[in-house]
Amino acid sequence: GGHAVGDAATGAPGDAGARDVPLPPASTAKAVTALYAHENLGPDFRYETTIVAPGPNTNGRLDGDLVLVGSGDPLLDSDALGAMAADLKAAGLVEVKGRFLIYDRVLPWVERIAFEQPETAGYNPTITGLNLNFNRVHFEWTRAKPAYEITLQARARNFRPAVTVSTMDIVDDRVPVFTYRQEHGRDRWTVARHALGNDGARWLPVRRPVAYAGEAFQSVARSHGIVLSRATRTLARPEGQVLARHRSQSMTDVLRGMLRYSTNLTAEVAGLQASAALGDMPGSLRASADRM
Predict the structure, then answer these.
(1) How would you label 214-248 residue by residue, b for 16+ Cβ within 10 Å and e otherwise?
(2) What's the predicted TM-score (pTM) here?
(3) How far apart are CA 100 and CA 69, in angstroms?
(4) What CA–CA distance (Å, rounded) separates 274 from 182?
(5) How far apart, in Å, are the Cα atoms of 242 and each of 55, 57, 61, 128, 280?
(6) Looking at the DSSP assignment, which residues form a beta bridge with residue 4?
(7) What are the residues facing 166 on neighbouring strands?
(8) For 164, which DSSP code?
(9) What are φ and ψ of residue 205, in 5° steps?
């Protein structure tokens, strides 16, 4: 490895080691992305996730659809969805007769950040315009002889709705530890029994973020007495009455957190939206990187 020390006040270089050895930039490249997003989106930019009712609302009963509209917010979590569901209840919503829709086309759909990274890596999820809990699902297990008790949750600090869009089967194969496939609209995982021990937990990436966020919001809405149908993705941006909204931290604070915790999803979303501020929305991460 190498190192370099400089004066933070003047920028003057100081001591350096292995200065001529080429090294991969790795997550230090996020500093460039942070500058790019800060300059092109502005320090006060905030993501705004909304719930829209395109149809008539009669005494708290929607005759039409209810739409969860994503903004790309990389920090959106299940607690934010819970707060939005509470706002719906406070606004007097009691029934939705139409469909429950999700709009996520504010960003392109990116299957994985990097295909050369491990399939099981929670830092390598799918990205779209509606990202929940960093598009990770919380897998937890506890030995309960003769089997295991397992949970898969859209886990945040206060709200931890169980999800079925991700499933886990424990198998007796010794290798590989995990396998993954998509089947019948779900993320299907297996894990080798010998690798579990007595108990534990880990985050796994979500490959169906719209279904994941939809199922989580269904759950938190139900806790407030609002029953929604299974979420369906809509390709048309909805117009209508905004019933609830969630605003993110400022871009400055979003980027500070991204640099502190080196969160890949935040970096890629911020880069995509900064590129979109300079022209059309890029269709891929590479196209965004080229523009940057």
Answers:
(1) bbbbbbbbeeeebebeebeebeeebebeebbebeb
(2) 0.91
(3) 11
(4) 32
(5) 11, 11, 15, 22, 26
(6) 16
(7) 187
(8) S
(9) -70, 150
CA distances, 58 to each of 65, 86, 96 (Å): 13, 19, 11
DSSP string, 109-145: -BS-S-TTS-TT-TTS--B-SS--GGGEEEEEEEEET
- Residue 85 is which amino acid? A
Cβ neighbours for 255, distance < 8 A, ≥ 6 positions apart = 34, 37, 38, 266, 270
| DSSP structure string for 260-281 | HHT-HHHHHHHHHHHHHTTSSP
**231 near 213, Cβ under 8 Å?**
yes
Distance CA 187, CA 35 (A): 35
Dig out the tokens for 45 from the structure: 């930019």
| C-alpha–C-alpha distance, residues 78 and 84, integer Å | 10
Give me the tens of pLDDT residue by residue for the chain, a chain 292 residues long.
688 899 989 989 888 888 788 877 889 999 999 999 999 999 999 999 999 999 998 999 999 999 999 999 999 999 999 999 999 999 999 999 999 999 999 999 999 999 999 999 999 999 999 999 999 999 999 998 888 999 999 999 999 999 999 999 999 998 999 999 999 999 999 999 999 999 999 999 999 999 999 999 999 999 999 999 999 999 999 999 999 999 999 999 999 999 999 999 999 999 999 999 999 999 999 999 999 9
Q: Residues with Cβ < 8 Å from 228, sequence gap 6 or more?
A: 66, 96, 100, 217, 218, 221, 222
- Both tokens of residue 248? 């993110």
Query: Over the range 39-70, which residues count as b (16 or more CB within 10 Å of their CB) and which as e?
Result: ebbeeebbbebbbbbbbebeeeebebbbbbbb
Dihedral sign from CA coordinates of 132, 134, 138, 139: positive
